[in-house]
């Protein structure tokens, strides 16, 4: 989401023509995955990225060509071959990356940047963007078309290629972005743009500031539950004085760090019934157990499965900045459904391998 924000901001701050480069398919290994983007202006200024830096040079040329020709194109980078003429050869990534280059028409209210901007205006919901990455000879004008999906009628651009009701059900059941291949030569990238993680910090002590900075640097949404007068000026806009538990959802992580046992206990009690995926409690385990025990004596049902106390991963953190790093890493681990172990001990690839869906 942070990259989308940067691209949208750059789009509005530059007047020259531009093209959007998007990774729409990855086979094997790559530094970035599908959905990675870079916005390139005709002056050569660019924002975002599609790789670790190895493909950006060629991507700049391809984007400028898309602007010049005012025509989209799909480029395949193959780092698995020994062809010296192939961009990216010798990198050792051993992957195939399809990148779609689409010139941006600023007069089009539904251009790709505008669609991305819409996802920022409605952060409380997930979004589905559909991009046509390959079109048959008799429908070349479809290449590069991007539209947002909400319900079956939105798939009208794909009519004639598949039964739209069946296709709609398949899209709605997807749990992550996926490529759809149609036997008649049409390829579609269905991108799920998730809601950003929302972090609620209950507290107003000095140790919230490095944590808040790190949360914001990741592009997550930050809410500080406190009296505004107790928070420094740079974070006052994130203060939530009228907090209500019903504001929380399955995309929320809460951190109880008021340094007051009774305050943390009250806040935990109000949020326990919501069964949130992540509740972090600052302080030693014995403190957390005392709170749990008191709540149980008062009749509350305490399920500690989703309570992380002491909060954070075991990285030897001692300073507020290091503790913030351990907390944010743990939040990411939970929401990504990962173990937090060393990647070198992971028997599977770092990223899940995508299997495209084939439609008749």
Automatic annotation (TrEMBL):
Give the source species. Answer: Lacihabitans lacunae
Query: What range(s) does the XdhC Rossmann domain occupy?
Result: 199-331
Pfam families attached to this UniProt entry: XdhC_C, XdhC_CoxI
Domain XdhC- CoxI spans what residues? 15-78
| InterPro entries per the UniProt record, alphabetical | MoCofactor_Util/Proc, XdhC_CoxI, XdhC_Rossmann_dom
Segments spanning the bilayer are none
Q: Which residues form the signal peptide?
A: none
Superkingdom of origin organism = Bacteria
Q: What is this protein called?
A: XdhC family protein
């Amino acid at each position: 989401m942070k990259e989308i924000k940067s691209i949208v901001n750059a789009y509005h701050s530059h007047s020259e023509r531009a093209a959007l480069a998007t990774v729409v398919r990855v086979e094997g290994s790559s530094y970035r995955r599908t959905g990675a983007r870079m916005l390139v202006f005709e002056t050569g200024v660019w924002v975002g990225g599609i790789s670790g830096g190895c493909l950006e040079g060629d991507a700049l040329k391809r984007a400028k060509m898309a602007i010049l020709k005012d025509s989209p194109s799909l480029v395949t980078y193959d780092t698995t071959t020994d062809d010296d003429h192939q961009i990216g050869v010798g990198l050792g990534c051993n992957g195939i990356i399809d990148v779609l280059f689409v010139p941006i028409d600023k007069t089009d209210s539904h251009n790709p940047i505008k669609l991305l901007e819409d996802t920022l205006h409605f952060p409380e919901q997930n979004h589905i963007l559909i991009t046509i990455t390959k079109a048959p000879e008799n429908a070349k004008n479809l290449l590069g078309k991007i539209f947002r999906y909400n319900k079956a009628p939105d798939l009208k651009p794909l009519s004639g290629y598949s039964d739209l009701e069946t296709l709609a059900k398949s899209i709605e059941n997807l749990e992550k972005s996926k490529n759809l291949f149609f036997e008649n030569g049409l390829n579609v990238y269905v991108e799920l743009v998730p809601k950003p993680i929302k972090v609620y910090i209950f507290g107003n002590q000095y140790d919230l500031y490095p944590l808040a900075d790190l949360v914001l640097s990741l592009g997550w949404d930050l809410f500080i539950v406190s009296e505004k007068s107790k928070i420094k000026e740079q974070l006052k806009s994130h203060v939530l004085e009228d907090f209500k538990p019903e504001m929380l959802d399955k995309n929320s992580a809460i951190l109880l760090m008021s340094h007051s046992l009774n305050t943390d206990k009250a806040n935990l009690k109000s949020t326990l019934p919501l069964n949130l995926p992540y509740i972090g409690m600052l302080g030693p385990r014995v403190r957390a157990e005392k709170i749990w025990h008191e709540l149980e004596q008062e009749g509350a049902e305490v399920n500690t499965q989703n309570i992380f106390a002491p909060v954070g991963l075991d990285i030897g953190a001692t300073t507020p900045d290091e503790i913030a790093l351990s907390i944010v890493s743990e939040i990411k681990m939970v929401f990504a459904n990962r173990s937090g172990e060393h990647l070198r001990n992971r028997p599977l690839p770092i990223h899940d391998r995508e299997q495209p869906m084939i439609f008749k």
